[in-house]
Structures are given as structure tokens and as C-alpha cells.
Amino acid sequence: MIAVLQRVSEASVTIDGAVKGQINTGFLILLGITHTDTDEDVVWLSKKIVGMRIFNDEAGKMNLDLAAVGGSILLISQFTLHASTKKGNRPSFIEAARPDVAIPLYERMIAQLSADLGHPVQTGEFGADMKVALLNDGPVTIIIDSKNRQ
Q1: Choosing a second label site near 39 at 20 to 30 A (CA), which of 47, 83, 104, 109?
Q2: Catalytic site includes residue 14
Q3: Does pTM top 0.70 for this prediction?
Q4: Distance between CA atoms of 120 and 86, rounded to whole angstroms?
Q5: 79 belongs to the catalytic site
Q6: For residue range 42-60, what is the model confidence (pLDDT) as tens digits?
Q7: What is the distance of C-alpha 63 from the center of its chain?
Q8: Which one-letter DSSP state was computed for residue 120?
Q9: Which of 88, 87, 125 is nearest to 103 (CA)?
Q10: Cα–Cα distance measured from residue 119 to residue 122, given in angstroms and rounded to the nearest whole number
Q11: DSSP per residue over 53-82, as a string?
Q12: Range list of H helices, 10-133
């Protein structure tokens, strides 16, 4: 799994003109799922995300996690994170998991993040045409790949 984690002051996702999810301070997470991902990736990545200390403390240093700032999560599925651009100019998405694999893992990630965070996360809708808006705070953007743990 690949997660693009963006520290935001606010973020929202709109589907068919209606706001589906929105947060203030927290993380907008774009999540890419590949066909080799498992529940182990879900658990590891969720704990890593919730524990990330990338909010500023009173001294202005990145030292606080989501819980310390009362932050929220907006989770968006994004298969294009697994694009291969090695050949030509049209990306290949062969490494992205098919919906029968990706949807259950996406739903498990929603549940795991909610449990680890201690309150529900906001989401988009798997496979929908979504409009995502954000105010990146910093900007701070971190990429975490569950296959690169060491």
C-alpha cells in the first residue's frame, strides 16, 4: 500500500456536486492498493499514519501526532498511485489491485484508522469520480509505502 499523507488545515471531497467528506486540521490521505497487499499492510500502515508526529509543537518543531492536535483523517482511494510510467507516455495501472481485492482492503483501512484514531474517518467513495480540495499546511506531504518498512 502506498499512502500520500498531506498535513492539512482543511480538506473535502465532493461527488456529483455533493460534499461526501470533509475535515479541518488533520491528514488528507490518498491510498493506493496493489494486488499483493494484505491485512498486515493495513494494520502496519494505519499505526504508522496515526503515530506520525508532523504537527508543530509550541516551539514550532514537528513533534505532535493527530491525537495531540485533535486532528481528523480524510481517506481517498487512488489507484493511480501504482502507475508505471516506464514505457511510453500512457501510464500502466497493472500493479493496482482490482476492485475485488482493493475494496475489502480499503474498507479494512477505514475501520483500522477509525479504531487507531479513536473516532470515525471521513472518506470518498471507491471508484467514484471525486473532486478533492485541500489546504496543505506547510506544505507537508509524506509518502509511506508499506512494502518499504526498513
Answers
A1: 83
A2: no
A3: yes
A4: 38
A5: yes
A6: 999 999 999 999 999 999 9
A7: 20
A8: P
A9: 125
A10: 10
A11: --EE-TTS-EEE-HHHHT-EEEEEE-GGGG
A12: 39-51, 66-69, 99-117
128 by DSSP, 3-state: which?
coil
**Set 34, 78, 112, 123: catalytic member:** 78
- Residue 45 CA: distances (Å) to CA of 52, 96, 105: 11, 17, 12
Residue 75 clears pLDDT 90, i.e. is over it: yes
Quote the cell numbers at residue 106.
480499503
Q: Is the CB of residue 22 less than 8 Å from the CB of residue 13? A: yes
DSSP-based three-state secondary structure for 20: strand
pLDDT category of residue 116 using cuts at 50, 70 and 90: very high
Q: 70-92: b or e for each residue (b if 16 or more CB lie within 10 Å)?
A: ebbbbbbbbbebbbeeeeeeeee
Strand 130-145 and strand 62-64: the pairing is unpaired
**Is-catalytic flag, 78?**
yes
